[in-house]
Amino acid sequence: MDYLSSIDRSRTPADPFVERLWLRAQRYIAEHQITAARVALESLVQRDPARIAARMLLASVYLDEGRVREASEQAVAAATMMPEDADAVATTVHCLLRIGEMTAARDCLARYDARNRNLDGRQLTALAHACQMLGDHPAGLALMDRAQAQGFDNPDFRYFHALQMQFNGKVKEARRRLESCLQLGPTFGRASLALARMSRQTAESNHLDYIRAQLQRVEQGSEDHAAFEFAQYKELEDLGRYDEAFAALERGNAIMYARRPPDAGHEDETFEGIGQLVTADFIHGPGAVIEGPVPIFIVGLPRSGTTLLDRLLDNHPDVVSTGERTDFPRQLRWAANLHGNDLIDAPLLARLPNIDYAELGRRYLEQTQWRAPDSPFYVDKLPPNYMLLGLIHRALPRAPILHMVRDPMDVCFSNYRALFGNSYLYSYQLDALATHYIRYRKLMRHWHKAMPGVVFDVDYRALVTKPEQTLSAIFAHCGLRQVPGCSDLTRNTTAVNTLSSAQIREPIHARNLGSWRRYEKQLAPLFEALRSAGLLA
After folding, report:
1. Half-sphere exposure of 22 (CA within 13 A, CB side)
2. 50-89 pLDDT per residue, tens
3. H-type helices in 381-454, by residue range?
4. Which end of the chain has the least Cβ crowding within 10 Å, N or C?
């Protein structure tokens, strides 16, 4: 609570009763007496509404109790009174983004305006991370460049600075920055993996000796350990040493799977619950009227080509990409007044019948339309939103929905070869991957049946082999005017922050079609599971 203390120091002393309440609330928090802490803080805020630190702590307590709306109310009110303190602003923005208050977070950063302030490297970096979370990557990179110019330096900073360079299209500079990060010496698997992905390795220029040396030093079973194995896989594959590459990939996935295996029963319950509850009758109901920019939702499995489609749509003069956004699931939890980290779970499912979907749609638009000030359409790309399509359509019936469809083996292998951290846990084991894919396809069949004609399937193969023809059909579905030439990826210079952020600036290509066949023998169990489910010819 250091940043809360810094906020408190910026204000005049309160009356003794308020001070006693503040100390009592902090003691209750330390003793894990959450209800008692809430009561004390509510009394404090009622008596002293300008006590910013108390409002922020109360917001945190409300979140612990699962009450998103009350947490939002306190955090937004505190943000409007924030003092001229970089640490407090950065922490407040993180809190606002966590609960889906994107507009308030943007306004908080804009009021502070770090461009002309005398800040140290640590403060600049904290604000840069806040900009990154908000999706303002040019501003984030500018702040990190300032921190570097001041001499601020450590391995983490170099790594995140390199990522910002990559997101902003400065791939060569990012590569040099990552190389310098590795020269600092610690075992740092994420940097090695990012560097391996950034370009094709050759026999004359690769990092295999470095990676193998670090594998002997890294903490065994850690995420860094897994990252070094994923990096080794990528570099060995570039060199055509496929058997060694897959062995490294298996080891990396096994490490991640052992760290936190997915709860198969929980996932099955969630998917079944969605299909049983969100029926055609459930979906039919009043939603929000869209006045102003119209969102276009792009969904699909991760690594199915959603970023590619997003970039191509961003080439259209009437469309702007807003990046990978969590706004709809955040607003869904606000509407349900139920905090949680999962996209959807059993407690949230239980509250779906009581949500005001028109209000949900309006809230979503309030938090997102500012991203498209000069465009009639904007893209909201979050692959797992495919689980929420019925809810999206009910809340925003005029919003076009595009679903990326990629060859089952290609997309499953592309998931298996990616390191997602603690996201998409199914991707780290072939049986779990096959099971998840089968559930995904079943749910998509359900959406097509419940909402005929609403979801437009975009075939990845068609998009990369016949891009102009495929885009023409996409434009027609979305209500966009026909504009030729949008398939030229190289003309798009806007920032992008996904795993494919380095590759997506190349001309469109079909090199990844059938890439799983290099490992046909090793992937035979996955192939058989999908074939047995009737998903392969």
Report:
1. 21
2. 999 999 999 999 999 999 999 999 999 999 998 889 999 9
3. 389-395, 408-416, 430-450
4. C
Number of Cβ within 10 Å of residue 520's Cβ equals 11
CA 477 to chain centre: 26
Q: Which fold has domain 1-112?
A: 1.25.40
307: phi then psi, degrees, rounded to nearest 5: -65, -40
For residue 319, list its beta bridge partners: 377
Tokens 């979503």: give the residue.
364
Residue 152, CB half-sphere, CA atoms under 13 Å: how many?
22
State how far the Cα of 65 lies from the Cα of 45, in Å rounded to an integer.
Answer: 18
> How many whole angstroms separate alpha carbon 37 and alpha carbon 160?
37
Is this prediction's pTM over 0.85?
Answer: yes
C-alpha distances out from residue 500 to 6, 47, 191, 337, 506, Å: 40, 51, 15, 34, 10
Is residue 404 within 8 A of residue 460, CB to CB? The reply is yes
Task: Give tens-digit pLDDT for 454-503.
Answer: 999 999 999 999 999 999 999 999 999 999 999 988 877 776 666 555 56
Question: SS3 of 379, please?
Answer: strand
* Residue ranges per structural domain of the chain: 1-112, 293-532
Which SS3 state, helix, strand or coil, does residue 139 take? helix
Domain 293-532, CATH:
3.40.50.300
The number of angstroms, rounded, from the C-alpha of 260 to the middle of its chain's C-alpha atoms is 19
- Closest residue by Cα to residue 333 from 349, 313, 318, 320: 349
Give the DSSP per-residue string, 43-109.
HHHHH-TT-HHHHHHHHHHHHHTT-HHHHHHHHHHHHTT--S-HHHHHHHHHHHHHTT-HHHHHHHH
Q: What is the pLDDT of residues 328-349, one digit of tens each?
A: 999 999 999 999 989 999 999 9
Q: Which are the contacts of 339, defined by CB distance < 8 A and separation ≥ 6?
A: 63, 66, 67, 68, 71, 99, 333
**Helix intervals (H) in 80-220:** 86-98, 102-112, 121-134, 137-149, 155-167, 171-182, 189-198, 208-215
Q: Report d(CA 293, CA 431) in Å as an integer.
A: 42
Question: Do 1-112 and 293-532 show the same overall fold?
Answer: no
Which residues, other chains included, contact 148 with Cβ-Cβ below 8 Å and sequence gap of 6+?
121, 157, 161
